[in-house]
Write a sequence for this structure.
């Protein structure tokens, strides 16, 4: 399966882009296939940033031709100040849970941007500077539910980028977790934190 990277992206992870208008912003794309819960993950991340961390956020989403199995992506633009243009231009961070998504969206990542992939699903990574974790495998083997791979990835994003506080993402996950699943979702999020922390060493 996909191997973990030995070449780590440059740090200074929370530095935001500055547009010609002087607007500080950070652009995120969560991508994969329908049924992986990426649209929900985008909503959760947006709520964590906006409600928990009190930042300005715009979230948009795109579905493929099929609700399940087709291409799916959620974009999140976050800034401390006003967001004058709501759509992504050059991504600061891309999460790709499928090979198709990685191939399609990696060209949209800015130079020095962060690429995070599911190393069990993305076997041909277009750069040596990336973070690879087997999100789907971890969800299946450690949590017992494949559907929480999106929550594990949110934990990894928080750890790798520092763009969202861990408390804010935890609160947002629990606010959206169906009744009775809070424990598994919390465990999935913590797994994302710890797996990403180990990979950064």
């Amino acid at each position: 399966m996909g191997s973990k990277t030995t070449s780590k992206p440059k740090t200074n992870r929370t530095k935001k882009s500055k547009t010609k208008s002087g607007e500080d912003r950070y652009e995120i794309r969560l991508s994969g296939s329908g049924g992986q819960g990426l649209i929900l993950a985008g909503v959760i991340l947006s709520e964590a940033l906006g409600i928990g961390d009190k930042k300005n956020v715009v979230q948009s989403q795109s579905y493929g031709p099929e609700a399940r199995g087709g291409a799916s992506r959620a974009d999140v633009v976050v800034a401390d100040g006003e967001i004058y243009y709501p759509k992504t231009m050059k991504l600061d961070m891309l999460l790709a849970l499928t090979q198709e998504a990685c191939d399609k969206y990696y060209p949209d990542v800015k130079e020095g941007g962060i690429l995070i992939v599911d190393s069990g699903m993305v076997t041909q990574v277009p750069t040596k500077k990336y973070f690879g974790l087997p999100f789907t495998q971890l969800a299946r083997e450690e949590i017992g539910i494949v559907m929480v791979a999106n929550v594990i990835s949110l934990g990894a994003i928080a750890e790798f980028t520092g763009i969202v506080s861990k408390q804010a993402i935890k609160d947002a996950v629990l606010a959206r977790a169906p009744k009775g699943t809070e424990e598994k979702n919390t465990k999935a999020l913590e797994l994302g934190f710890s797996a990403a922390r180990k990979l950064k060493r």
